[in-house]
Design goal:
Largest interface: A-B, 22 and 26 residues
Shape of chain B: elongated
Order of helices and strands of chain A: HHHHHEEHHHHHHH
Number of strands of chain A: 2
Number of helices of chain A: 12
Helix content of chain A: over 70%
Radius of gyration of chain B: 25 Å
Structural class of chain B: alpha+beta
CATH architecture of chain A: Orthogonal Bundle
Radius of gyration of chain A: 27 Å
Strand content of chain A: under 5%
Order of helices and strands of chain B: EEEHEEEHHHEHEHEEHHEEEEEEEEEE
Mean pLDDT of chain A: 85
Strand order of the largest sheet of chain A: 1-2
Low-confidence stretches of chain A: none
Number of strands of chain B: 20
Oligomer: heterodimer
Number of helices of chain B: 8
Chain lengths: 288, 347
Amino acid sequence: MADTAPPMEPPKLAHTPRARLDATLLRILGLAFTVFIIAYIAIPVVVTLVMSFNEASVIRFPIKAWSFAWYQDFFASPQWVDALKSSVIIALGTTVISTVSGVLAAWAFERFTFPLKSVVYLVIMLPLFMPGVVLGLGVAMAFGNVSIFGYDIYGTRGLVMLAHSLWAMPLVFMLMEATFRTVDHRIVEASYDLGGRPVQTFFEIVLPSVSTGIISSALFAFVISLNEFVMALFLTTRDTQTLPVLMWLSLRSAGTPRLAVASVVLAGAVFVSLALIMVWYVRQLKKT
Amino acid sequence: MADTSALELDRLRRAFGGVVAVDDVSIDVKRGEFVTLLGPSGSGKTSTLRLIGGFEKPDAGAIRINGGRVDHLPAYQRDTATIFQTGALFPHKTVAENVAYGLRMRGVARADIAPRVRQALDIVRLAGFEERYPAQMSGGQKQRVALARSMVVRPAILLFDEPLSALDLSLRLQLRAEIKRLHDEIGFSAIYVTHDQGEAMAMSSRVAVMRSGRIEQIDRPEKVFGEPASEFVYTFIGESCCLKTQMASGAAADADGATIDLRLANGLADGDWRLYVRPSRLQIDRADLDNRLKARLDFTEFLGDVHRYHFKAGRIELFVDHQGAIAHRPGDLVDIGWRSADMVAYR
């Protein structure tokens, strides 16, 4: 049996004490690294959270007494509540504008072919990569003196919504374009086949199959607008300023835990948004 | 006659780029008729179906449903309903909602929808599955939902796009019988696309054998099987043994020119011939039959019901299905005989 290969030996497993020590060491290192990363991510949030419950008016460690005093102060101040309201209204408006336009644009891209499609794609995506300063200044200069029916555009929440949509819409578009590509074209054909007109098919078949994508991209739009600072700084007035803007403006005058409270409120809104999408996602998973 | 036709295809043509997918196809499907488009992949059968359904536009020719031209209409305005290969059920809708969809889109009154959905699900034996989602059902059940969803709208013609090809064999046979039963009971008109000749034979009123976009033959299954119009139809439908022979002044040789002991009742003209016989019609140890060939037994396969004996004569390979054992061992020279009626010759 000279021409047959010798029987395969099982590969030697690492059972030596040395190898075991190496493996343990590696595991400990990995754990330490993970803890470090988590701490690195969490520390700013945790510090702000701790500060917001500080009774003293100056941010200074260690904290002597805990209280909700600054929360009461925050929600009792019309200026801060208005800023929060502005932020939420602008974020909601941005969400609606960018989700509707982004979803429709993405659907058009998926469904139709037209000349210069790739150029149009780039044009749509371009604002996403523009510095907020450039966009904010541009919009401010373009609409600074524009009034419609004697109503000044500049300083309105609507203008901020449009400006924020410059960032949010390309993001929604990008996410939805990828999502629409996953839609099973066979069920779209099945809908046409059964007499569903294009609009009915879009609402009955296409939208439900991308609902998770729409919810998450809408959430992204909401969070982007809520967090956005530079464009809002350029485009808001005292009456319409958003929470980040007010925080920045009060940074020197009020280095108080009030700012920490504002941060917690802002971060809280983001966490709530994330929680909502989790709930939605789990519900979707259960359905299928 | 337009008033008895559910569907007429009149010289339909469709090319994709330079490739002609559907070439001069004409079919007239009478009401209640079940016509199968049978062919290998790429033969244009699915393209033809998509033209009828309105998912593609023909380059030339006409499509008439119940006598009215439809080839300018989009899919959603045509009175057709397709059962897709994968079912294509709406995953976010329940079984009942899936079946109701076509009725809703066609504006059927709300009160009429529920009973019709129930009836359709009864017909495909899925009563009680109304609230399930497609993901909770098996492949065969999904295809039955797809069937119900298409049948419930009572289209002028049902279009089947290889609906059983994704299922395993036993389920395929079961659903095939079920579709046949539904056709016998309800009498819908249908075009059924398949590459499985067994399906085509079992279910169809007529079979259209397609090749490279054209219809080679359209006829009743027995006719297509028994009187194939061309060599392609003969070889595509059912199994066959091919004897490639060179004839020269009455003597036969294989493709290499080596002499073989082939006797034919009716002599063939000189030249290259391809003789075909079905393996079930070849008989072993029958030197008394009109046509016969001496060949060596090569090996034997056990197929369950029959044994399949593989023979060689020069370059020619053939196999004979025979019930039970034979008295020969591999290497033996055996007389294989067949009747003239069971043979076709092409050159």
